[in-house]
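Morning - pyridoxal-5'-phosphate inputs below, output right after.
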Amino acid sequence: MSIESLKSLFRPELDELSAYRVPPAPPAVKLDANESPFPLPPEARARIAAALHATELRRYPDGRARELREALARGLGGSQDEYVLGTGSDELIALLATAMSQPRTGAQRPVVVFPDPTFVMYRMTSRAHGWEPVGVPLDGAWDLDADGMADALGRTNPNIVYYASPNNPTGNCFSRDKIERLVDTFPGTLHIIDEAYGAYSGQSFATFAEERPHCALMGTLSKVGFAGIRVGWVRIHEALSQELEKVRQPFNLNTVSQVIATLALTDLAPFLENGITSIVAERERLATELTAYEALQCFPSDANFLLVQYTGDVPELCAALLDRAIAVRQFLTGDSRLRSCIRITIGTPEENQRLVGALSDILG
Ligand SMILES: Cc1ncc(COP(=O)(O)O)c(C=O)c1O
């Protein structure tokens, strides 16, 4: 069989997608992926080393990740059985696309709605699973267009709607009352509020979602210091978590990740809190520093990054920063409003200073 005939067996939707690319060698100052910039202090590393030393690696992981789900329920509320775990929330988006893919009566394909621009994986993953993604443009302040969203929900009757709040890449939380109204107006859809950056906003929909079986919360450890262990979760009504469990690979979360994630949510929580507090303070400081440059306009942020509009040539600016070993994120595709923007993850005070120094060098 020729390679062409094998390629013809791949889903046609894949033609319009590209694989996620990361730069080959990370530069010295990496401000492009919304990770935490702070290494764990030695005491925290020692706790992890001791826990791993006592861990049995010869066996398969605990397929139910009981200790980790217990830590989540204790820390974030709800019962253990409401938590479905994934290798990052990326995997949960894929699990939801696999499990909830029954088209509505009369529809050809299942539909997912999200505001646009937002986290790209809602679109990419649903496309790769044969769903129809429907993006509703955010308004001029990067807030939800509540009427546009209501119109899309009413018209398409989606299986799922995602709201990342704080939103990536815009950084802001959406108006709470708009989300609440949409959730309450459309009880036949699963509304997922993605709180990946919630630690930096001090806001959560936990109490609201608890009272609404059709509202679920997504979370991750990736943005608060543990991107390397790939642990995310969705907290969802038990009747739905049971269905998702049927498509989850039983050992998706390896033992090392389970052990470290459990520690992160318990004994190491104070270290994480310190990091979060420092990043919020640095975010405000960096935003103020950037106002010195006429060519830059910083949008308000509730997350661990800033979206900054630049009046000059964005690829040139990013290249000039990269020449100084500083990586920030630019947007070459997607919402045209982002073409004139860069996204800067908040770094350590030293990294942020280096960025400011480089900008003053480049912009004068
Ligand atoms: C809004 C949002 N949700 C989820 C994720 C994915 O997180 P994870 O690392 O847990 O897969 C990201 C990552 O950038 C994100 O921005």
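Note: Residues 29 and 350 are 10 Å apart (CA to CA).

O.
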